[in-house]
Amino acid sequence: MITKSIADLKERGGPSLQAILKYIMGNFQVGNDAEVVNMHPNENNPTEYLRLFKNHVEPSSNPIFERFKFHKRNQKEFETIEQYITDVKLVAQNCSYSQQDEMVRDQLSFGLKNDRLRERLLAEGGSLTLDRAVLVCRTFQKTQAQIQTMHDEAKQTIKQEVDVVGRRVTDSRANKDCHICGGPYSNEHRCHAKGKKRNLQPQTPKKDNQDPEVHKFYIFSTSKRPLLFKNSSVSLGLIKFLNEVTKKPDQTVNRILSEYEDVFQGIGKLEGKCHIYLKESCQPTVQPPKRIPISMQDRFKAELSRLETLVIIEKVSKPTEWVNSIVIVEKPDGSLRLCLDPRNLNKCIKRPHHPIRTFDDVAIKCANSKKFSKLDARHGCWSMELDDVSANLTSFNKAFGRFRFRQYPFGLNYAQDDFQRKMEEIFAELIKTAGLGLLIDDIVVHRAIDEEHGSNLEKTLQVAREKGVRFNREKCIFGKTEIPYFGHILTSEGIKPDPNKSLAISQMPKPKGPEELQSLLGMVNYLGKYIPNLSTLNHPLRTLLKEHRTDGSFQWTSEHDKAFANVKNSVCENLKYFNLTSEDVVLKVDASQHGLGATLTWDGGISAFASRSLSSAEQKYSQIEKEALAIAFACKHFHQCVYGRPVKVLSDHKPLKSILSRGISVAPP
């Protein structure tokens, strides 16, 4: 019947067929239908009518923009491989490529989110065609689905076997109602209506949907495809938005930075001049000039000229007792850094030995803080001017002449102590009142609320402007909830290891020699506060290094493989700040055959781990003596946090309780 109708339309000609087309497309047209009709002068040509209608609803595309969309088309998070292939082919149709199959093949190889599948396609090399790429992708997707099915069935089998244990045998009549009175089935034998004649109300079963039910919804952070997305949940009424949280732009920080732009420009100049004190018995030395490679000479001259312009160095014509060497360091961008090589001079300097703060000194002040900013002093050493006598000690010579430093040079051991002292004097008031964190040339501004954070940041920049401190804008961080700081991450929740360092440890290959093993142990020890019982975990590795130093042997065994894996997998992801006001402080201690371990906790949160190895003499102690030694070690290591406050000590060695509960005078030796 349909075939006959189409044949009749063809026999009638254009006007009838065109009228039918206009009637059918009326529901889908875009714009004014009269506008489409007026564009077509010949009503006897339905094909022309279709062409004009298509051009009206689908304007001509821009090949350049379509190619941009094509190259940006990567596989989405929950998109299947088949969907991705289809969409890439559709997008490529509007790009006007002469070699369309090759371009689609390349985009498939680049845009896939599965690294293993991408590697398989790249391994095909130049012989890979589009058909071959599609076949490999479909085969891979099918294989993954089969593996997932096998895995799910295996998990279901295990779950069923586990659920058998403890399963209660229930009566088949359970959860049924009495057919006489409607009561529980188990009550039928004592049913009050059984065997009696009376008018009974019919029992009408209650529908399940008459009682409201409360269901729990669980939210998981996973890459699995969800059953319902946000839009679907809102449409079904499962989720109702009462209020939406909007992030207010931090205009305070932007205003402060624009007001103190001068603090981030140039090199600072601190007040006063510095003097270097020498030991009385030291003998001056004169180092001969070192030759400069021809490829560096032009850049070396340019750097000397730049430092002269900045008044960091100056030429010297008169004799000086000390003449040092210079070390040239090539930066990644090709420029040079000139550093003094004062090995002989450092031996003769009287260091002031100013106490340098540690990371823990700064981190302990950050408890309860939510906003952080980090300020990095620009060329801290160059901001301190030397007096004339001290400047003569830093002279150096090259083929282009003899120079001396007017500011502190990099490499001088006196510079760090002097710079730390001056910075603490400059920001002393803010360190005391605002909890400012200061470690060498890095300053941490932190507070619990934005207003206080902005106020402290402005005060810090104001003091820096008045005292001649300048910061490196590229290395500064402002108004963040977490910042990197000396190999750690300061966050609003606590401290974390630097992801780069954790990743370097987890990806480090098996050491092939003592040097690589020593490097591994050094990296692990730096993150020791994040690793529980580190001394016990790395004991086989330390023993191997000790044996190499004794007899030169280095034999890596399966025991070392196990220790290596345990160390890499034991890094804790997050530690809480220690709360100075907490009264629930607990020290958890433990002792093994080779080491001692301790954990500092408060209010149930872990603040730090500590451990150390046992000496050869301590390894001969009895177990109860090792456990007591672990308590002494924990109290000494965390002395700064536990002194002057009630502390609970937890140990798994119960005999210690009866011994330590006695007085010291009556306790056994």
TrEMBL record:
A GO MF term: DNA binding
GO biological process assignments: nucleosome assembly
Please tell me one Gene Ontology term that the record gives under cellular component: nucleosome
Where is each Reverse transcriptase domain found? 310-490
Database matches in Pfam families: Linker_histone, RT_RNaseH_2, RVT_1
Q: What is its EC number?
A: 2.7.7.49
InterPro entries in the record: DNA/RNA_pol_sf (IPR043502), Histone_H1/H5_H15 (IPR005818), Retrovirus_Pol_polyprotein (IPR050951), Rev_trsase/Diguanyl_cyclase (IPR043128), RT_dom (IPR000477), RT_RNaseH_2 (IPR041577), WH-like_DNA-bd_sf (IPR036388), WH_DNA-bd_sf (IPR036390)
Q: Where is this region: Disordered?
A: 192-211
Protein name per Swiss-Prot or TrEMBL: RNA-directed DNA polymerase
Give the species: Artemia franciscana
| High-level lineage | Eukaryota, Metazoa, Ecdysozoa, Arthropoda, Crustacea
